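User: what does the whole thing look like in 3D?
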Amino acid sequence: MAAPDPIVPQTGSKQPGAAPPPATPGRSNEASSPMREAWGQFLKNRPAVFGLALLAVIVGLVLYGHFIFDADPYDIVWMPLTPPGEEEGIWLGTDFLGRDMFTGLMKGGAPTLAVGLSAALITVVIGITMGSLAGFFGGWLDDLLMRLTEFFQVLPALLFAMVLVTLFSPSLWTIAFAIGIVSWPQTARLTRAEFLRIRELEYVTAARSIGAGNGRIIWRVILPNALPPLIVSATLTIGVAILFEAGLSFLGLGDPNTMSWGLMIGQNRNYLLDAWWPVTLPGLAIFLTVFAVSLVGDGLNDAFNPKLRSR
Amino acid sequence: MADPLMSLRDLRVEFDTRHGRVTALSGISLDVMPGETLGIVGESGCGKSITALAMMGLVPNPPGHVTGGQILFQGEDITRAKPRRLRRLRGREIAMIFQEPMTSLNPVFTVGDQIAEAILLHQDVSRAQAEKQVVDLLATVGIPEPARRAKAYPHELSGGMRQRVMIAMAISCRPKLLIADEPTTALDVTVQAQIFDLMRDIQREFGVAIVLITHDMGAIAEMTDRVAVMYAGRIIEQGTSDQILDNPLHPYTRGLIGCIPVLGREAGDAASLPPLAEIPGIVPPLHLLGDGCAFAERCALADDYCRAVRPPLEEKGHPVACHHAGQGVPA
Amino acid sequence: MNDAPLMSVRGLTVDFPLGRGGLFGKPQMLRAVRGVDFDLAPGRTLGLVGESGSGKTTTAMAAIRLAPASGGQVMFDGADLMALTPGQMRQHRRHLQVIFQDPYSSLNPRDRVGAIVREPLDLMDVGDPAGRAVRVEELFTLVGLRRDQMALFPHQFSGGQRQRISIARALATNPRLIVCDEPVSALDVAIQAQILNLLRRLQGEFGLSYLFISHDLGVVQFICDDIAVMYLGEIVEMADRPTLFSRPRHPYTAVLLEAAPSLARRKSQGYRRQGIVKGDPPSPLNLPPGCAFASRCPQAQDRCRAEKPALRDTGAGKVACHFPL
Ligand SMILES: Nc1ncnc2c1ncn2[C@@H]1O[C@H](COP(=O)(O)OP(=O)(O)OP(=O)(O)O)[C@@H](O)[C@H]1O
Ligand SMILES: Nc1ncnc2c1ncn2[C@@H]1O[C@H](COP(=O)(O)OP(=O)(O)O)[C@@H](O)[C@H]1O
Ligand code: SF4
Ligand code: SF4
Ligand SMILES: [Mg+2]
Ligand SMILES: [Mg+2]
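Assistant: Here's the predicted 3D structure for the full assembly of 967 residues, as structure tokens:
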């Protein structure tokens, strides 16, 4: 029953061929740049702005925090497992070796974010490429790529990542790569499904009818319309990657030479019953980061969707 | 004259929208006599479907509210009826068929099951009896091999067959009033002709009154006894179908009739046809309606008086709401 | 019809694969268009009419290579479209444009309408950028939209206005032929008249040819010069407008005319439709050996069920029927 929503009450031409109708009030037709409009829309989305602010604080702290509180996260500063606030200057307590939690969180943040971001990037690049090719061209290419996707999807992700990390050095980059390799199939499937749906819509045929080639149709027509679920899934992937890294570290497969939130959780896990903070605090940091990223992702999605604009 | 089967008395329906509260129906009054066919025409968004839903007591709430007037079915005001009473009326006394027969059938049950369900809901019969009735009904609505088709799922039937199934379901309890909201808009002309034929047969056989909602003046001509023309939530002209088609008084009705390229003798002439009459512009959105005539923005006869004062529905040969009714070029 | 045709289609055939017959099975094919021939003269409008699923859209789209044809030849303005490389075909698209049925799905929701109308000019490298901007404004005026609406998105327009945008896009490159696939059937009657008048005015102004698809004979009568009636992927009758409407020869055409709405058929005068056609068309997967219309034809005889009628000249047009009316 959704009656069309004619917003612009147009006084049409009375005679065919008459001059176009005069401008009607009621709708602003400002033609600012798309970016600026999207940004304006983003700013109207309170949760997204909150997420962006939170993310800015986190990123600011982990990138620039050490200019203020410079210390070595491996230094043993006090008694092991000192609770937060008990000792002057050790606000967040110490871990099982007596290292300062606060310094650890500061220094461990950057590698964690880097792993999350690069893994998500790898996932998105491989996933969108595979998914869009499969969905757009169909046929044997689709078959081939989907078999490949299934192969990677049935791989036990954690096991595969463990193998990769043990075979190569357990550096952050190996970890990011391993996470990317095991998580792209989901993005690929999502992309493919969106491409299959949008490919059939008339505006794609319309683009072809004015002479657009395959590349243009994939990039300029279908992909922008397929983005909303992909953006959401990419932000989720950042979260998943961060957690995955924590999982690997938890299993003792993290890079022991680079402090990260995952490593902190992994190394302190055996003392969880004695002290909650060495595990919970990095966990909270991960949670807040993932939360902020997903709020921003939602906001981006809405900001770039013209239908939600100008409401 | 007999008592009307269904009467709307000064019905008002309002909706909560992002533009605030808007009035979708502002004071609709009409009668449906037993056994007749009443047509309701107008462009989309004029309130035809809401009028139909109101007759069923089905105005979607939220966001809709019936804020005034009465809906009388055989003298009983259904705006005051208890939910239980309403459910009894629906399906049993008043039935409805919709525009899109695909989306109004449940895809996961066979059509036979769905009709049987409707029967069991309103009649005190056994499952086996209901199933037998289903086959009879499918035969009545002209479905070949009714026993086999009863076991089909909606997607296995063509659009025309699905609409026949909807009609079978609607007449399963011998309702007194059948409301058909653009029942053939999604169908081909050949199938539309079949469905119209079926509706006429059913009316003759069961004496059911039909409210036919359409935007097609051809359908009005061949199917209806009386017509109400709606614009922006009001009835702007009302009369017998011949009065409306042969002597339309409202500029909007004239436009509607003039703008359809109906088949005529001219089709056989070699000269190309003159341009169609145009109603310029579009139906104004409800939240932008002012105090004057809602059609003024699109009306060739509009003057300052029209824009300031809303014309009431007055008897001018037949009821019409226009200050300059009957003036200007006839359709 | 004495001009050399602008477009000339011979033996056009289109098959769609139906799912896969298992991993190694041969896919089953649905033949949606079965050997269609027609000529379209410059400056004229050829109507394709027929029921839903009769193959109107597929025929038109295959003729301009927006759907893959599995056989047949299409000559357009001296070029054999089927023989062109994809790159050459893209160049030809400047002369061949389309207006689609659904004004809600034929415009990319993420683009501004100004950019939508401009896109063909950019793709075809027509003129310089400043000239394109002027052209877009010109087109907006031409189709009855305002220039200040160029920065809006498609969802901010009503159905009729969106169809005007589609028309502006189709006109942008000064095409010679526009395929109109039911351009008004999704619109309200009042809006339909606006668009039909606009299409006719533009045809007169620019000497356009239209391949006009519709299932509404009223609309066809208003806009078409020649009409081809399709049934199950074939043309069953073809004639110019006066001939087809005054003297339909194929029983299916007669049935369509009888079913078309008209103000003259009044319930008050006890109107009852005479020859309404029974049932639905047979499945295109399972066609009878003889005339495809035989299962519903009031005139059908034994010969019809055995032997397939060919499209023959009748002097005034063409008809595919053993016993034309
Ligand atoms: N992409 C496709 N894959 C498979 N079958 C198709 C496809 N497109 C069309 N068909 C089939 O081809 C036949 C003709 O379809 P087409 O869309 O050309 O009909 P049409 O005459 O344009 O109908 P309508 O009036 O509904 O638009 C139908 O049987 C249809 O189911
Ligand atoms: N659920 C709803 N919420 C808000 N407005 C509605 C709703 N349903 C209908 N309307 C409004 O009520 C008016 C009449 O609608 P409707 O009766 O469906 O029109 P018609 O059937 O004549 O096309 C329209 O302007 C429509 O936008
Ligand atoms: S009242 Fe005035 S504006 Fe309204 S329809 Fe009549 S003449 Fe037109
Ligand atoms: S060939 Fe026979 S069945 Fe076919 S249309 Fe002609 S008369 Fe009818
Ligand atoms: Mg409606
Ligand atoms: Mg079609």
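In plain terms: The interface with chain B takes residues 1, 3-7, 9-14, 16, 21, 26, 311 of chain A (CB under 8 Å). The two ends of chain A are 21 Å apart (CA to CA).
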